[in-house]
Amino acid sequence: xxxxxxxxxxxxxxxxxxxxxxxxxxxxxxxxxxxxxxxxxxxxxxxxxxxxxxxxxxxxxxxxxxxxxxxxxxxxxxxxxxxxxxxxxxxxxxxxxxxxxxxxxxxxxxxxxxxxxxxxxxxxxxxxxxxxxxxxxxxxxxxxxxxxxxxxxxxxxxxxxxxxxxxxxxxxxxxxxxxxxxxxxxxxxxxxxxxxxxxxxxxxxxxxxxxxxxxxxxxxxxxxxxxxxxxxxxxxxxxxxxxxxxxxxxxxxxxxxxxxxxxxxxxxxxxxxxxxxxxxxxxxxxxxxxxxxxxxxxxxxxxxxxxxxxxxxxxxxxxxxxxxxxxxxxxxxxxxxxxxxxxxxxxxxxxxxxxxxxxxxxxxxxxxxxxxxxxxxxxxxxxxxxxxxxxxxxxxxxxxxxxxxxxxxxxxxxxxxxxxxxxxxxxxxxxxxxxxxxxxxxxxxxxxxxxxxxxxxxxxxxxxxxxxxxxxxxxxxxxxxxxxxxxxxxxxxxxxxxxxxxxxxxxxxxxxxxxxxxxxxxxxxxxxxxxxxxxxxxxxxxxxxxxxxxxxxxxxxxxxxxxxxxxxxxxxxxxxxxxxxxxxxxxxxxxxxxxxxxxxxxxxxxxxxxxxxxxxxxxxxxxxxxxxxxxxxxxxxxxxxxxxxxxxxxxxxxxxxxxxxxxxxxxxxxxxxxxxxxxxxxxxxxxxxxxxxxxxxxxxxxxxxxxxxxxxxxxxxxxxxxxxxxxxxxxxxxxxxxxxxxxxxxxxxxxxxxxxxxxxxxxxxxxxxxxxxxxxxxxxxxxxxxxxxxxxxxxxxxxxxxxxxxxxxxxxxxxxxxxxxxxxxxxxxxxxxxxxxxxxxxxxxxxxxxxxxxxxxxxxxxxxxxxxxxxxxxx
Amino acid sequence: xxxxxxxxxxxxxxxxxxxxxxxxxxxxxxxxxxxxxxxxxxxxxxxxxxxxxxxxxxxxxxxxxxxxxxxxxxxxxxxxxxxxxxxxxxxxxxxxxxxxxxxxxxxxxxxxxxxxxxxxxxxxxxxxxxxxxxxxxxxxxxxxxxxxxxxxxxxxxxxxxxxxxxxxxxxxxxxxxxxxxxxxxxxxxxxxxxxxxxxxxxxxxxxxxxxxxxxxxxxxxxxxxxxxxxxxxxxxxxxxxxxxxxxxxxxxxxxxxxxxxxxxxxxxxxxxxxxxxxxxxxxxxxxxxxxxxxxxxxxxxxxxxxxxxxxxxxxxxxxxxxxxxxxxxxxxxxxxxxxxxxxxxxxxxxxxxxxxxxxxxxxxxxxxxxxxxxxxxxxxxxxxxxxxxxxxxxxxxxxxxxxxxxxxxxxxxxxxxxxxxxxxxxxxxxxxxxxxxxxxxxxxxxxxxxxxxxxxxxxxxxxxxxxxxxxxxxxxxxxxxxxxxxxxxxxxxxxxxx
Lengths: 875, 498
Hints:
The complex is a heterodimer.
Chain A: H1 2-17, H2 21-42, H3 46-63, H4 68-82, H5 88-103, H6 107-138, H7 140-150, E1 164-172, E2 182-185, E3 188-193, E4 196-204, E5 211-215, E6 218-221, E7 223-224, E8 230-236, E9 240-248, E10 251-264, E11 270-273, E12 278-281, E13 290-298, E14 303-312, E15 315-323, E16 330-338, H8 342-346, E17 351-359, E18 367-369, E19 373-376, H9 382-406, H10 416-436, H11 446-465, H12 471-517, H13 524-541, H14 545-566, H15 570-585, H16 623-629, H17 635-658, H18 665-679, H19 682-685, H20 689-702, H21 705-718, H22 725-768, H23 773-794, H24 798-823, H25 840-855, H26 864-874
Parallel strand pairs in A: 3-10, 12-19
Antiparallel strand pairs in A: 1-2, 1-4, 4-8, 5-6, 5-9, 7-8, 9-10, 11-13, 13-16, 14-15, 14-17, 17-18, 17-19
Chain B: H1 2-15, H2 26-34, H3 38-51, H4 56-66, H5 69-79, H6 86-102, E1 106-109, E2 115-119, H7 128-146, E3 154-159, H8 162-169, H9 173-179, E4 183-186, E5 189-193, H10 204-221, H11 227-237, H12 253-262, H13 282-315, H14 321-326, H15 332-346, H16 349-353, H17 363-376, H18 380-388, H19 392-397, H20 402-414, H21 418-425, H22 436-448, H23 452-465, H24 470-473, H25 480-493
Parallel strand pairs in B: 2-3, 3-5
Antiparallel strand pairs in B: 1-2, 4-5
């Protein structure tokens, strides 16, 4: 019983220490000593010893009641009696001695004295017990806290202790939800909107309590509100459980009140895209010309914005569809993504089309997304290749017609004139249809249309006059006009293929660069897909004339080298792809020679074909054929040809000057983004490199390549000289962008300069045959202006070049005027006869065609003015 | 290869230790490299290393000669400040260019080890049999002509485009495009453009022999031959591997020189600059080639075979080229004057006009293009009619034009008119620079007439002229390497739309 008492009291003392963190440590140190008496006393072997000890203590105090002489003699006498018997006489003597000593003691007094000692000891024990009980009673809460702390599971107590008298809650929902403020008790469960602000107001039981609220895993302290209460304000975003309690020695002792808060999410907008999810091939869309998108967006509180999102791999483009006031809870709309959309042309893989709607929430991303319509674009350049293919088909049919007209069949009973007229009518229809058809959203360029229509118009004029002409002469005229048409179409096709091949190759180069950039980060499967797509694009590129075939073959060869290296030597594969990307950024033919019409080789041999397979610049354009085209025509037509080509070059020059016509806007945007991305690199972020590259990006967007180049140069020069892998990569990327800017600055301008030079040579050839002095002078002026334009473009002086081009045009106009004044021709020249008003038959045919055209119009957008003009014609 | 790379790297590592800066023995290394002997250069480096100088750039140069760009780049990386010199920078750029051209490239070595070829475009490997034959013949022909025995293997890199050609050799790209450079013999190897890089092909086997002649003369003269001698010899020897064609030198080098002389466009032969490939235009390059060829022939004739051979070999041991030439009895200027005077004396009136372009009449390309389109669409009769519409003056101008004759032959083939085809193919009129299809058609007709040897010869000419032209190399019933080449040619042209 005593052991229990001692142990309990010891523990109580120890527990009282556990009020602070150091106290807890001390208490834990003393606890074993508190428990020790109990433990010791519980052991049977020690109990007698303890009893003996107590007995000794008791005897010690009791002995003090004996007389002084007895205190020493009585124990010795007892020892003699209890000791080992030496002999019979001795035992007797010892007992006798004891009796004599005992007889000298006053036993009554002794017993009274012992009783007094007993009483004092009892009193002391009771006093201690009372004191301890009093202590426990007075500091009970502290004791409980100590018990809670010592028995805590980690930082949270296993028992609860009341800490507050009253706790309440005030709920304020986000303002945009327009929900009034409300109150609730701090208990049970509560549903609030995510983002609501909750205010806990409580009165604590003791002023010195460190009150806190656990909110999920966080612990938030309550602060005094200055009026005797404590308060906590907190915004709730997720569902969580709140408990109020006190914090003692780093341990949370709950009050007992628990509040389960559930957040009612402000739901994300729900967006439905009609037909999604589905996958389709570009060019095989349900609606002709693109993908039609109809959507319905809805939100529980209100919509702010609706966007069309196009995503391919890591590339994303967002296009706003609607901007709303946040009051409207739903929105319906539609959009249309054209097959010729630049995003499809740039995409390396499938493109996801989604509609995304944003509500008025303020926290994080608040976009609701629709399911996706996945559009699988054809290989890069497919649209251009298909367009080219369709025009080649037209040219082939024209070649077939030329063959029929050159060697007419001699069937019995057939009327050659009637057959020819029918053939001419079919030809007209086919030309109109081919030139008006868009392939995968890509229309036939105006330059090609104009060239072909002009030749076709000449043919039509002859056809209208055919019944009036002598049969064989008429046939020969038709043959000559068909030859012109074939050559014009062929020449236009070559130029188109040339420019398309360059454009597609540049875009392919960008994708090759992307593949190179991702070669070490991408998963093998993704990398394989990328390479497969590049191969597919290369195959498509091969379809674009000699230059396309050349570059496509080059790409295929390089990819064949890259593929086996990807897994074992990714750095080599990356190196080769980067080199290929640089090559495609400058899509020159693989072989070129200048300065000689025959083309040169390292050993001076001529190796280029004389069959129009390419001129000195490696197959560019059709200068040879174009030069030959005018040989059979009048000088006036030759001047017209020159004027037309000069006009095209002038337009190209103006485009260059504006920085847009010969540069693809999407391409500029792409490079601007790249410059911005480079500017975001850590190496540049701390200096002014980022600012300069941002500025360069803006300049690229505006087409100011010269200043952009300067900015890129500055950044490159500012890069620290010390080498590191990151810096090398950065420098390479800057150099790539620099090379692209150089190409924009000088590449097209030099091509233009070469074209101008060739045109000047042709003008001089024409001048050599000029019989009229005025014509000769005009042509001299023209050739001189063309030379100046060529020089200016070669030196990159675009404004000067275009001005000189304008002068060349004026010169050609003067030459034409001089020719007409001299020859007095116009009506007799078939080239000048194609004016509807001069010939009633033609006018009738023209009106018929307009009627047919109007009847056949399908959802084409015709400006009102044109429509009025057409209707006027019918009256 | 791997062992050599390790050796070079270990040499470099040894050289990185502090060393004296005594006079650098680069001259000996250059001498060995000039003689196309990298092993000798390596020995020179080892000798030099015993004395302690740093020679990483020289080792890198040897690596480039051996076709080991990665090793060269590593050596240059390890060279520190030495690689920052102009020499080092140029070498680094060339090593990078070579790396782009040859990394992952298909490599083949002939069984006898005499030829090592790297194909940048894997499909070009089909040309290997013809390349091996040409190189074997060229080594013999050029060696005999210059009294040289080839001991080291010939190293050829066949590149896919002019940009790679420029990067792998150090020639400025713009210069390559200006003069239409097809091949370069430098760094102990021939770097040549693949015939697939040009739309209509080019006489690539002549070009290969031309470049091997450069290498031979480089080895003979320890790279001390002047430019006019290099180009003159190479041009003279480039057709010696095969039988001569009627229009091999039409117009003749002499007529080109005389016309340029008359127009004041003739440069002195000692002022051609560092390379013909760096002249301002292809025409200027053509004139330079013609002048060098004519002058070399004149000199060789005047000196006689024995003195000529002695002159070539004397170059290797003397540093002053002019002194060597003067040992023949005249200064360079005197020789040049004598040569021009002899040309002017022998000039015939027709020579002066021989260079006039055949294509000056625009009606020719016009008719030819239409004819080509018609024949490709299967309208043989119409194509013939179209070509027949060429006016007489223009017709006279194309009477020897290979392109015109080839197209005519294709038209007759389309019309299945064997007699007209035979009359054209075996007619009396010599044809200048016919296309590959011309030779293929001749070969077919010769086979039909049981002249199989001539047929085989013409097939070889077709491959030499236009290896990737299906019209030139594709025939029904052929097997073996010709069939493989035909497949490659067809594949290269797919899809042909235009």
